[in-house]
Amino acid sequence: MFNKDRWREIIEVLTTNVWRTIFTAFGVCWGIFILIVLLAAGKGLENGIKQDFGNIATNTMFMWTRATTKGYEGLPKGRSFEFKIDDVQALRDNVPNLRFISPRNQLGGFGGNNNVVRGTRTGAFNVYGDYPEIINQDPMTVTTGRFLNYNDIKEKRKVAIIGQGVKNDLYDKDEDALGTYIKIQGVNFMVIGTYKKNNSDGGEEGQKEIFVPFTSFSQAFNRGEDVGWMAITANDGSSISQLKDKIVDVMKKRHKVHPEDTRAVGYFDLYEQYNRVESLFGALKGVAYIVGIMVLLSGIIGVSNIMLIVVKERTKEIGIRRALGEQPWSIKKQILMESIFLTLISGMVGIIFGSLVIFGINSLLDSVGPVDMFMSPSVSVGVVTGALTILMVSGLLAGFIPAQSAIRVRPIEALRTE
Amino acid sequence: MIEIKDLHKSYKMGSNSLHVLKGINFKVEEGELVAIMGSSGSGKSTLLNILGMLDGADSGEYTLDGVPIKNLSETKAAQYRNKFLGFIFQSFNLINYKSALENVALPLYYQKVPRKERQEKAMQYLERVGLKPWAGHLPSELSGGQKQRVAIARAMAAEPKVLLADEPTGALDSKTSYEVMDLIQKINDDGNTILVVTHEEDIAHMCKRIVHLKDGVIVEDKKVEQVRAGQYV
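Output (structure tokens, whole complex):
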């Protein structure tokens, strides 16, 4: 199959009419180019959007309380209530497959007043009362010192981990923050660590957060047993979307909320949002494939056409070969191989050009810095091998009809054509 | 070598059919040089095509070297053609993008002879037809006589049982024609069986036997005194 003579013949045939071959090849080249670039663009968009999710554990929901909208068990509607710290244990007991349950409290927030003081400097930051698990749900890199631990919780230590942005605002450039004190709403906390978040995880705001132990927070800022909101992550095997109804029901029961009150417990299901985005990209990829393959198809038809013409032109030659004793399947194989070779080579050129364009876009993105919702477009090796398989098959299909017509001509008729 | 019994062949021309061969009985021994003569439409080319397994007969028997030729699949026919037959055509039918040497080597390629051996053998046959220096030339760079000699070398290369020549001199002037006939005679002298279809008297008389075909039947089959072409060259 791969003997030298056959290849020489393929090259000879394809180079007899160079321009025709090139124009034919261009059709396939263009098709695969479009396919690759579309897929890469889709991937770029996907990367860009997914980056907004950052490293946050996506199998997570957030839950908070709101005023009730239905009266229940003698309690009026419009009643406000708070989650309590016992609720965490209740959830652990009643809902299986939960990985992390982090009760949280918060000070400050968007547009808040200055709430943190150090010496002569002040700043407005988000201050969270947290359990150590939060670092798994809202990932950050501890750059110096350490994060919260359970001893901090147990002993209600007044310690704080501050973000890079906080440090920049409250400290001199090369000042060491560890061991110093900052005053949060009049209460002194010792800085035991600094962290940095990926730029994408909440952007600028993400760097301006302060984490203190949940228990110390409650005591220092008079929250008692109250829990502001919770971040709940399910085990990898199960989805939080399926567990959330159960979680909400447990909360409603514990806080005497009417079972049909849909407003009283608010939640945000990150996993559902993530899935929605995920399926959007699935659809986008599907469209890219369809468009790319359609364009490719017209190229393939071009190849098939040219192969038919080639067969027509070589009718006499094929007749001579058969008179000399060439087997029909050998002729068929020859035509098929020419067709596959032509599609494969032009397809590879298309892939190379596509990759160059992607490479160009990437280096452009690198030089101008991050662009909204678009990041490192790329195609995987899987896609490239997939494209090559498509080419292989389509080359075979493109050559099939011409090859069939080549051996359908009886040698005597082929020889008669003068 | 060749034995034909009651061979019939007709072609369909629209609604009416044309009966071209109307019962041919014919025998060729090994080493014969037979001319098949007849005016155009007498069925001589059809007969040759059937002998060459390029076309099938409607009825009758055809035995080639003891092998009955009947209902062949295309694959089988190609195999037999390669093994038993060498073709020489009026219009040479060389493959024009292949050199003389490659053209001669082609039947050997279909016999799956290794490349090197193929080339050597092809070169031998080219030498035999006196075209060794032209081995690397394309057919377009050769004269008509040279092309036909390449074609003869090609027909010989597979060492077939029978050579079939369809008007081998039809496209050549008389001097070149004689050269080609001289070559054919020499090949015959080596013991090869050759059938030549022609409508030229002088060419026919350079064979050893003349079969006259008229309206699809053999009207005359006679041995003749061979005229050597060498004396005209």
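DSSP finds 14 helices and 14 strands in chain A.
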